[in-house]
Design goal:
single chain; alpha/beta; 9 strands; 52% helix; elongated
Length: 297
């Protein structure tokens, strides 16, 4: 695989910083340039060795760039693409790490229409409740899925290169349409985050919140872990994918109404049936998604 001579990362936090570290570890990049809204995270990223240079304007950042990763919250994508468009060179490949795809692709068509062959949307299915440059990890993408959602206008060589770069980070590549992507992740990612945020917010607003949290243990910790995630990022994700997310929320509200009816009727056998089916489905998923590692000798 050919090295990336100059990599530009917009958004040098967990996702962008981990991308840079993974490519450094793989020997796939020579120079990493960071660009963003505020100087403090950029300087911190440079001090941590995530990036080599800080740029304050797109003309400088894109001069001679081979690859650009847009790793900021999806709500910033439109403005960033508008700013970079006048300076984007013909040979520069662009990809993103946005958790929603319809809105990102709309911004691509709106601002980068003259560069469609080289703008390849993607989404790494990796993250953590921590954010910022300090959260970056070289192994974040190891054995994690990255979904590529190519545009009809994409150059096949550009798609192949984006896949190659993510594979160099240790990722497992998948491909689907943007529409399917947003429907799938509304169900298995965006809705769980919304529920976790909502539960913690509701409990925190109660008069006895301190008492409740003092007795919360591992079950509460595991269910609400993602409520510690980046608020701005998840605000943008929920807003951008609101149509698919509303459909999933309505389905979940129907399930809650059913469970409430079972509780009101004290229908213990029916509750057990629901719990048993859910437990079996969850166990089957966990065993497939996280197979047990063989013990060392």
């Amino acid at each position: 695989m050919n090295k990336i001579g100059k990599l530009v990362i917009a958004g040098v936090g967990l996702i962008g910083g981990s991308f840079a570290l993974a490519l450094r570890q793989a020997g796939m990049v020579e120079t990493v340039v960071g660009i963003g809204r505020r100087p403090e995270p950029l300087e911190r990223a440079r001090a941590l060795g995530l990036i080599d240079q800080v740029c304050t304007d797109w003309a400088e950042a894109l001069d001679g760039a081979e690859l650009v990763l847009l790793a900021m919250p999806v709500g910033q994508m439109d403005g960033v693409m508008a700013a970079m468009a006048p300076h984007l060179q013909a040979g520069t490949l662009v990809t993103d790490a946005g958790s929603t795809k319809r809105d990102v692709i709309e911004a691509i068509y709106r601002h980068l229409g003259h560069h469609l062959p080289q703008v390849v949307p993607a989404h790494p299915i990796a993250g953590a409740e921590k954010s910022g440059p300090e959260a970056a990890m070289a192994d974040l993408y190891q054995k994690r899925k990255v979904v590529v959602t190519p545009l009809p206008e994409n150059d096949p060589a550009a798609v192949a290169r984006v896949r190659e770069v993510w594979a160099a980070c240790g990722a497992v590549l998948h491909q689907m349409s943007p529409q399917e992507h947003d429907r799938v992740f509304a169900a298995v990612s965006h809705l769980p985050h919304l529920l976790a945020f909502g539960l913690v917010h509701e409990l925190a607003g109660r008069a006895n919140a301190e008492q409740l949290f003092s007795y919360a243990a591992s079950g509460f910790r595991d269910f609400t872990r993602v409520a510690g995630s980046h608020p701005e990022m998840w605000r943008d994700i929920c807003s951008a994918n609101r149509h698919s997310l509303l459909a999933e929320l309505d389905a979940y509200l129907s399930e809650l109404a059913y469970l409430r009816a079972l509780l009101a009727a004290n229908d213990a056998p029916a509750l057990e049936t629901v719990f048993a089916k859910a437990s079996a489905a969850r166990t089957a998923w966990a065993e497939k998604a996280f197979p047990a590692q063989p013990s060392g000798e």
